[in-house]
Each structure stands twice: as structure tokens, then as C-alpha cells.
Design brief:
By secondary structure, the protein is an alpha+beta fold. It is built from eight helices and six strands, in the order H-H-H-H-H-H-H-H-E-E-E-E-E-E. The N terminus is likely disordered.
Length: 253
């Protein structure tokens, strides 16, 4: 969780078919020839020829059609398609597109009411938070929600390596424990701030996501619970404790 732009997120801590077709074609041609040569009014002869023609059709060829073999994938091809689907990962661009689409979402007068808080309260993460930090699940409904916002983005897209938490310090430590922690402001990275300028995880106050490095000592970010809403910010790098790196897809294809 995070504060109202500068309020500490730490507060929560307390709380077979070819041959058969040939046979059918041959029989059919014979039947048509005989029918054409039959004198007018000889319907009984025509019926007889038709019956003989049908009797000549091999068993099984008049069965209802099977699945269209021309469209069927081989086992290998089907496996490749399935593997491709499994391997797809959302990109940093996907995450940032979703995050920036939330700009303007704000909390109510009680500090709650956002979709991010409602989602978190209904998620397994809330129960885990209570087990770890105490309090009740309902406490999250009006709690600081900067980290709930980041966690919601990851959950909506199924981003691997994003983690989920409402408490920024433990979320940052999780990234570090996963070996996904560093100092580079890459797009889509989860950025953790300390307003005092401290570089200690224990002093983290707030969290957001990097949109870009401005290469002038600042970064552009998208954050939740900044002045009680989702907004795009420009932050000085001196307030950055570190960055967590989710496992994004390698391209935007």
C-alpha cells in the first residue's frame, strides 16, 4: 500500500475414402447411362437400376462425414500450436497500456472503493496478508492501495514474476529474493520509492511502474494512490530504492 502521494505504505503492517469414391463414381455413371436410355414411363426399370447402383456401393462409404480432414492438424502441428500459446507472455507494453488506461480512477471519501482494493479483498493475497501481518481481510477495503494497483495489473494480464502484495516492503523483498531486483529503470519495471532518499527496503514508502527513463535524472511513472488516484508522474531517481523486474515477453508481436 502507499500513502496519499507521500503517505507511508508501511501502515498496513499492523493491520478410408479414395477407393470408395471411385466405385461410387463408376456406379453412378452406369446408372445415369441406363436411366437416360430407358424408355419413357419405365419408372420401375429406373427404380431397379437405382437399387442396383446403390447396392454396389461399398459398406461404410455412405456413412456420415467425419471431421474435415483437410483442416485437421497433425498431432505434431497441434502440439506446436499449444506450445506457442503456453509460451506467450504479456509484454511490458501490454502492462503499461493497461496501467495507463486506469488514469483518473480515484478512491472515495473513505479512502476505498477502487476496483483495485475490491479485487485485493476478494483475492487469496488478502488472506495471506492477514496471516502475515494480522488484522482482518476487510481492512484492505479502505487501505492504501498503490501496491494493490500494481498487483492488479499483473493479475489481469497473468504477468509472471510480478508477485502481489499490499505491503510495499515485503513486495520489494520478494523481488530481491527472486533475483529480480536491480537499479535500471526499464519500461514496465516495478519501482519502489523512499521519500527520504534511503536505499533501504525497510524504508520504502510507495510503489509504481516505470513508463520510461527520461535520461535526465528522472523517470516517468504510472502510479496508484498518488493524490488519491491513478496518475502519471515524473519522479527524481534520488527517491528510488530499487526496481523489481517482472517476467515480460521479449517483444510486442
Amino acid at each position: 500500500m502507499s500513502g496519499r502521494h507521500k503517505k507511508s505504505c508501511r501502515l498496513l503492517r499492523n493491520t478410408r475414402l479414395g477407393g470408395s469414391l471411385a466405385a461410387v463414381t463408376a456406379v453412378g455413371a452406369t446408372a445415369i447411362s441406363l436411366i437416360a436410355a430407358a424408355p419413357a414411363g419405365s419408372s420401375q426399370n429406373v427404380d431397379a437400376v437405382s437399387a442396383q447402383a446403390m447396392a454396389a456401393v461399398p459398406h461404410g462409404t455412405a456413412a456420415s462425414p467425419k471431421e474435415p480432414h483437410t483442416l485437421a492438424l497433425s498431432d505434431k502441428s497441434a502440439g506446436n500450436v499449444a506450445a506457442k500459446k503456453r509460451e506467450w507472455l504479456p509484454t511490458a507494453s501490454d502492462a503499461l497500456k493497461l496501467a495507463t488506461s486506469q488514469v483518473g480512477v480515484s478512491e472515495d471519501s473513505s479512502g476505498g472503493g477502487t476496483k483495485f482494493q475490491k479485487w485485493f479483498v476478494s483475492s487469496p493475497w488478502a488472506e495471506r496478508g492477514v496471516e502475515r501481518d494480522g488484522g482482518q481481510v476487510s481492512d484492505y477495503a479502505n487501505a492504501n492501495w498503490c501496491d494493490m494497483f500494481v498487483s492488479w495489473i499483473g493479475a489481469q494480464l497473468g504477468v509472471k514474476g510480478m508477485g502481489a502484495d499490499a505491503f510495499t516492503r515485503t513486495h520489494a523483498q520478494w523481488f530481491k529474493d527472486q533475483g529480480r531486483w536491480g537499479e535500471d529503470a526499464t519500461p514496465g519495471a516495478v519501482v519502489f520509492f523512499s521519500w527520504s532518499g534511503s536505499k533501504s527496503i525497510d524504508d520504502i514508502d510507495h510503489v509504481g511502474m516505470v513508463i520510461k527513463d527520461n535520461h535526465d535524472g528522472t523517470i516517468q511513472t504510472i502510479e496508484g494512490n498518488t493524490d488519491n488516484a491513478v496518475k502519471i508522474r515524473t519522479r527524481d531517481k534520488s527517491t528510488v530504492v530499487g526496481y523489481g523486474y517482472p517476467e515480460y515477453g521479449s517483444n510486442d508481436a
